[in-house]
Amino acid sequence: MINKISNGKPGPGRPKGSPNKTTAAAKDAIAQAAAELGGTNRLVSWAKEDPKNERAFWTIVYPKLLPLQVSGGMDLNLTGLEWRIVEVNR
Q1: pTM passes above 0.70
Q2: In this structure, how many other beta carbons lie within 10 angstroms of the beta carbon of residue 40?
Q3: CB contact set of 71 (below 8 Å; sequence gap of 6+)
Q4: Residue range 11-69, pLDDT digits in tens
Q5: How far apart are CA 24 and CA 17, in angstroms?
Q6: Looking at the 3D structure of the chain, how many domains does it have?
Q7: What is the dihedral of CA 41, 50, 57, 59, to 10 degrees?
Q8: Do residues 22 and 29 lie in contact, with contact meaning Cβ atoms separated by under 8 Å?
Q9: Which DSSP helix (H) or strand (E) runs through 44?
Q10: Domain-embedded: residue 47
């Protein structure tokens, strides 16, 4: 049930940007487990154990640290480009 204020509209809820308590608790639990499993040194050892592990680190783990959106002052002029749809036979 949604709590409503006297005008019938939903209340303001959680302030924008404030962390979800469940998400914060889950992140804390994962961080604690990682520390108890050996932390940084263990992660490095795992990545070095097998080339597949290192690939997983660079393609799955590390990208999670990168920003989802890249912004900058570049002004790209895309006029005059030709766009083609290419079908690849499998």
Answers
A1: no
A2: 9
A3: none
A4: 677 788 777 888 889 989 999 999 999 999 999 999 999 999 999 999 999 988 887 76
A5: 13
A6: 1
A7: 170
A8: no
A9: helix 39-49
A10: yes
Give the residue numbers spanning the domain of 55. 37-63
41 within a domain of the structure (yes/no):
yes
Residue 66 and residue 47: Cα distance in Å, rounded? 19
Does residue 56 belong to any structural domain of this protein? Answer: yes
Instruction: State the angle between helix axes of 21-36 and 39-49 in degrees (0 to 180), rounded to the nearest 10.
Output: 70
Q: How far apart are CA 30 and CA 39, in angstroms?
A: 11
Length of the chain in residues, anyone?
A: 90
Rounded Cα distance between 59 and 52, Å, is: 10
